[in-house]
Amino acid sequence: MLLLTTGFTAGAQQVDSIYFHLYTDSLKKGVYNYINVDARMSDNTWRPLSARDVQFASSYGKWDECNLIIDSAITDAYVDVTATYKKQPALTRSVRIYIKVLPDPPLKTEGELKQDWDTRKRKKKS
Question: Compositional bias (Basic and acidic residues) at which positions (predicted)?
């Protein structure tokens, strides 16, 4: 059993580099902004990394694992974020992420959503 385990570990892929794969183009104030970092392995496959794998740092905000929380007091236009792979500190990547400026549009009411849906159904039948 030990030989089998050793054989598998010896053939395990190594992390070549790390990359940000952000789900958004800007950070929102007052919410958890998930910062996604993936590892490109030596066989060119990808592996998601967690806060156990990556040390995060930023020019502003508070971290909760992979989530960057930006409070509403920020006046800067952007936040610089750096991710460092803990097992190989030479593997580091930085990105500048802008702060969302425009407010979110108001959410539609249930009635407005039903009306939109009914209108779309009628247009399809025509």
Answer: 107-119
The 10s digit of each residue's pLDDT in 17-37 is: 999 999 888 999 999 999 999
CB 71 within 8 A of CB 63: no
What is the span of the domain harbouring residue 80? 14-125
| Out of 6-10, 52-56, 72-76, least confident range | 6-10
Residue 88 confidence (pLDDT) above 50? yes
Number of domains in the chain: 1
Whole-angstrom Cα distance, residue 70 to residue 35? 12
Amino acid, res. 4: L
Q: Kindly state whether residue 9 falls inside one of the protein's structural domains.
A: no
Strand partners, 79: 97
Does residue 120 fall inside a structural domain? yes
Say if CB 18 and CB 82 are below 8 A apart: no
Comparing 124 with 13, the larger pLDDT belongs to 13
In a domain, 88, yes or no: yes
Q: In degrees rounded to 5, what are phi and psi of residue 111? A: -60, -45
Q: Does residue 6 form part of some domain?
A: no
